[in-house]
Write a structure and sequence with these properties.
- This protein is an all-alpha fold and about 100 residues long.
- It has a domain of about 40 residues.
- About 65% of the residues lie in helices and about 0% in strands.
- It contains four helices and no strands.
- The longest helix is centred in the C-terminal third of the chain and has 17 residues.
- InterPro entries: Anti-sigma-28_factor_FlgM_sf, FlgM, FlgM_C.
- Keywords: Bacterial flagellum biogenesis, Cell projection, Cilium, Flagellum, Repressor, Transcription, Transcription regulation.
- Belongs to the FlgM family.
Length: about 100
């Protein structure tokens, strides 16, 4: 009794065909790549942090605000705060 036929030209296991077909499908699906984009403002901020150069006027203003807050003399301008927050509340009430 012959187990293997020597006359076959391309004896391939049907399981192997399925595995190869699945691999080809996966490679087609996995060609999609993730992308990350960084805004111009974020790039400028990162460059400023790396170089260690912060605008002197901004640093002075921050220091002044810190002193006012710690001393309890900082006053919030309620009208300016409301004007800044109003667009956010308008958007949330429309949805």
């Amino acid at each position: 009794m012959k187990i293997n036929e020597t006359g076959r030209i391309n004896p391939i296991n049907p399981y192997q065909r399925n595995v190869e077909a699945q691999r080809q499908d996966q490679t087609k699906k996995s060609t999609r790549k993730d992308e990350v984009s960084i805004s111009d403002e974020a790039i400028k901020l990162l460059q400023a942090q790396k170089s260690g150069t912060i605008d002197a006027a901004r640093a002075d203003k921050i220091q002044s605000l810190k002193q006012q807050v710690s001393a309890g003399t900082y006053q919030v301008d309620a009208a300016k705060l409301a004007e800044t927050l109003a667009p956010y509340f308008k958007q949330s009430s429309e949805n």
